[in-house]
């Protein structure tokens, strides 16, 4: 079969046609200029919508959200999550025998209850922001950075950390005691990364598990908040003083270049329990408490869209300039 025929067959039978808008691929000469221009993090109460449009959003608002289930016909459950320019696709296989799992590597250990295997992979050389491409580029012997080179297919440290965080977040919600000697495989493919990758993966995995008909205690919703310095242009004499900090809900990758810290939270909304909490950076206790509360508000907002998605099959939201929890459909 020719490549043109295969492409036409894929486009005619796939559901994912035009479901995401990739970021433009920068030229090698413009990568450094764009990375330098994007070093400054917006500190005002209004910031870019994060979805490529000219609209703005407040520091407490989420980006445009799109959720859809039953995307892949050969999976027991599947879901796609689009959060601004972050695009994540998840497929669930199982419950099935542990020997049939492709993630066990043929090693089967006895387990009276069920087990869950999670794997997160990044699409190679796709959806990378310019500053991320520069930092991840491999320099050649002559000192030139290979921005246009393909990323290695070997599992990276970021993929390992994302897989571990995903397993920790969704494992408590699955009734593994109802799946004796069985395994559930969760595959997540990051099509495009522009911040909040782990929360998007957790949300997609929870929707895919529900779409597969696996018994759950509750859906898992996740959100992240970045903590940045409000006054980055202060004089050198003011550096000894404590600068005011700003919280940014659902930060983009531009806003995560130089953050003071980041908080990621995954919760069971109906049970009011936290399944995953990750904090990076040095954040004052009071600011950390405010960041966690903002994460909880974001999780509750995303959870409402997740419930509607399971009923309707897909749901989309628009950016609101009001606080988290008032995002309009």
Describe the structure.
This protein is α+β, with helices and mostly antiparallel strands and 329 residues long. 26% of the residues lie in helices and 26% in strands. Strands 6-9-5-4-3-14 form a six-stranded mixed sheet. A four-stranded antiparallel sheet has the order 11-10-12-13, sandwiched between helices. The protein is globular and about 55 Å long.
Key traits:
6-stranded mixed β-sheet; 6 helices; disordered C terminus; 4-stranded antiparallel β-sheet; 14 strands; 26% helix; alpha+beta
Give a quick precis of the structure:
With 329 residues, the protein is of the alpha+beta class.
What does the radius of gyration come to?
A: 21 Å
Average pLDDT value? 75
Q: What proportion of the residues form beta strands (DSSP E)?
A: 25-35%
Helical percentage: 25-40%
The SSE string, one letter per element, is HHEEEEEEHEEHEHEEEEHE
- Structure classification: alpha+beta
| Termini Cα gap | 43 Å
Low-confidence residue ranges: 1-21, 28-44, 143-150, 232-241, 319-323, 325-329
Number of continuous helical runs: 6
Main β-sheet, spatial strand arrangement: 6-9-5-4-3-14
Number of strands: 14
Shape: globular
Largest sheet: 6 strands, mixed
Task: Detail the topology: elements first, then pairings.
Layout: H1 3-13, H2 28-37, E1 46-48, E2 56-58, E3 65-69, E4 77-83, E5 86-97, E6 115-122, H3 130-136, E7 138-139, E8 145-146, H4 157-170, E9 182-192, H5 197-211, E10 221-229, E11 245-249, E12 261-268, E13 273-281, H6 285-312, E14 314-316
Parallel strand pairs: 6-9
Antiparallel strand pairs: 1-2, 3-4, 3-14, 4-5, 5-9, 7-8, 10-11, 10-12, 12-13
Helix pairs in contact: 2-3, 4-5, 5-6
């Amino acid at each position: 079969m020719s490549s043109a025929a295969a492409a036409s067959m894929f486009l005619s039978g796939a559901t994912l046609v035009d479901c995401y808008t990739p970021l433009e691929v920068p030229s090698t000469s413009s990568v450094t200029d764009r990375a330098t221009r994007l070093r400054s993090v917006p500190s005002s109460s209004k910031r870019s919508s994060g979805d490529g449009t000219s609209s703005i959003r407040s520091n407490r608002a989420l980006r445009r959200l799109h959720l859809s289930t039953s995307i892949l016909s050969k999976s027991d459950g599947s879901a796609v999550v689009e959060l601004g320019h972050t695009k994540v696709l998840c497929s669930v296989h199982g419950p099935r025998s542990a020997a049939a799992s492709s993630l066990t590597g043929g090693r089967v250990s006895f387990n009276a209850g069920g087990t869950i295997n999670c794997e997160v992979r990044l699409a190679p050389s796709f959806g990378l922001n310019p500053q991320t491409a520069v930092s991840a580029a491999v320099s050649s012997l002559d000192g030139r950075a290979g921005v246009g080179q393909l990323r290695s297919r070997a599992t990276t440290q970021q993929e390992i950390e994302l897989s571990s965080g995903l397993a920790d977040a969704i494992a408590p919600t699955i009734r593994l005691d109802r799946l004796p000697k069985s395994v559930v495989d969760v595959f997540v493919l990051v099509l495009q990364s522009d911040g909040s990758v782990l929360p998007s993966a957790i949300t997609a995995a929870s929707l895919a598990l529900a779409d597969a008909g696996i018994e759950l205690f509750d859906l898992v919703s996740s959100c992240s908040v970045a903590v940045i310095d409000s006054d980055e242009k202060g004089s050198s004499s003011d550096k000894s003083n404590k600068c005011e900090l700003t919280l940014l809900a659902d930060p983009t990758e531009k806003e995560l270049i130089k953050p003071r810290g980041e908080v990621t939270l995954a919760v069971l909304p109906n049970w009011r329990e936290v399944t995953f909490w990750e904090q990076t950076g040095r954040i004052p206790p009071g600011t950390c408490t405010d960041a966690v509360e903002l994460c909880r508000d974001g999780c509750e907002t995303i959870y409402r869209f997740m419930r509607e998605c399971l009923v309707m099959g897909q749901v989309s939201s628009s950016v609101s300039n009001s606080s988290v929890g008032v995002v309009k459909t």
